Amino acid sequence: MNEISIFYGIENNDVKKMLNCFQSKRISYKKDTTIISNLANTNVVGIILNGSANLIRNDYNGNRTIIEKLDEGSIFGEVFSSYSDELSVIATSDCEVITFDYDHVIKRCKKSCPYHNTLIDNMLQLLAKKIVIMNNRIDVLTKKTIREKLLEYFSILEKENLAKKFELDLNYTELADYFGVDRSALMREIKNLKEEGFIEAKGKNITLLF
């Protein structure tokens, strides 16, 4: 269990004690099922143990946008989000999730567990990473055209992977939702970038040529 970042530095036996103390729930979900809805009005912290999910935003017009892709070890909850619109977590594969109330994190139990401080430190580091992710998203979405959004997004992935060749962590339908654009328009711009010699694209594998 301690390979999951929120539990980094905490022994497995202590993690099990902590989760028992937190009255955590461990639940399995099938692909395309809702793990949690109306996230902004809950007090839940969730951790993806295995599998993957997407954090989805639905605005007042019913438009669907992918806010973040959640993989093994990813954490989600109202405290980690800056959006006031309705948010949902949807499984993109069969997955297993642990959930517990955030109050258990910020309020010490009577046992004063020595590893509680480590957990809080890990959560603060995760919050800092979430801020970077959100800032990257803002950098992408503030670009005016689909081409500019794509090139900014590819540049971010290049920096993260330290290479000009990388695999997209979203499929093209999800990427269109992430950008908030029409999928056909997205695919047309990717085709243009290929033809103009900016990129090579084979499925989700992208190579930057600039």
Topology:
Layout: H1 12-21, E1 25-29, E2 34-36, E3 44-50, E4 53-58, E5 64-70, E6 75-77, E7 86-91, E8 95-101, H2 103-106, H3 116-141, H4 146-161, E9 165-167, H5 172-179, H6 183-195, E10 199-202, E11 205-208
Mind explaining what this structure looks like?
- With 210 residues, the chain is an alpha+beta fold.
- It folds into two domains: 5-126, Sandwich (Jelly Rolls); 143-208, Arc Repressor Mutant, subunit A.
- Helices cover 37% and strands 26% of the residues.
- The protein is built from six helices and eleven strands.
- It has helices spanning 12-21, 103-106, 116-141, 146-161, 172-179, 183-195; strands at residues 25-29, 34-36, 44-50, 53-58, 64-70, 75-77, 86-91, 95-101, 165-167, 199-202, 205-208.
- A four-stranded antiparallel β-sheet has the order 1-8-3-6.
Write a short abstract of this structure.
With 210 residues, the protein is an alpha+beta fold.
Task: Provide key terms for this protein.
210 residues, alpha+beta, Jelly Rolls, Arc Repressor Mutant, subunit A, 2 domains, 6 helices, 11 strands
How is the CATH topology of the largest domain named?
Jelly Rolls
Beta-strand residue fraction:
25-35%
**Cα-to-Cα separation, first versus last residue:** 41 Å
Secondary-structure arrangement, i.e. CATH architecture of the largest domain: Sandwich
- Secondary-structure-based class equals alpha+beta
**CATH first level of the largest domain: which class?**
Mainly Beta
Mean pLDDT: 87
Radius of gyration: 19 Å
> What would the principal axes of the Cα set say about the shape?
elongated
Q: How many structural domains can be distinguished in the coordinates?
A: 2
Widest sheet: strand order? 1-8-3-6
The CATH superfamily of the largest domain is known as Jelly Rolls
Q: Which ranges are low-confidence, i.e. pLDDT below 50, for 5 or more consecutive residues?
A: none
Helix content class: 25-40%
Number of helices: 6
The major β-sheet equals: 4 strands, antiparallel
Query: What's the helix-strand series?
Result: HEEEEEEEEHHHEHHEE
Got a strand count? 11
